[in-house]
Amino acid sequence: MTRAFRKIFAIIILSWSFSAIADAGPFEDAGAAYDGGDYATALRLYRQMADQGNGNAQFSLGTIYEKGRGVAQDDAEAAKWYRLAADQGHPTAQFNLGIMYDNGRGVAQNKVLAHAWFSLSVAQGNQEAARTRDILARRMTPTQLAQAQKLAREWKPEQQPHRR
């Protein structure tokens, strides 16, 4: 019985391993396409994953639209995708969304939201976000700072899968 159990256990472990490899494959394929300049393929692959809630793919779509790689440059579309990833806790998406709010690119300019997104990114160790947040804080009123800090304190990530 123990031999049969070990065999079943090995099959289960192998199937989990292969499913993990298969899950990482499309993201790696999209990254390779992007790095190789095949933006149409990267866009298609990232979009499929992003539509399923993949925060890394959502972030990548934000980058594609912000930089205009294979698509018309579109700050509003970039902000949309960054927001979806940021809502899941993606620290670089939170930072980029903060930049967009600070500069009014793709979204209405809003120092309070910019500061809050920077703070959330800082909480995950983003030192660039810390420097940017601190510079922004010098241009804010005490009331605005209090509002931003409250938003960051009360923020909760969306319950979508955040996988790679």
Automatic annotation (TrEMBL):
InterPro entries: Sel1-like (IPR006597), Sel1_AlgK (IPR050767), TPR-like_helical_dom_sf (IPR011990). Transmembrane segments: none annotated. It holds the Pfam family Sel1. Keywords: Signal. Residues 1-22 form the signal peptide. This is Sel1 repeat family protein. It comes from Bradyrhizobium sediminis.
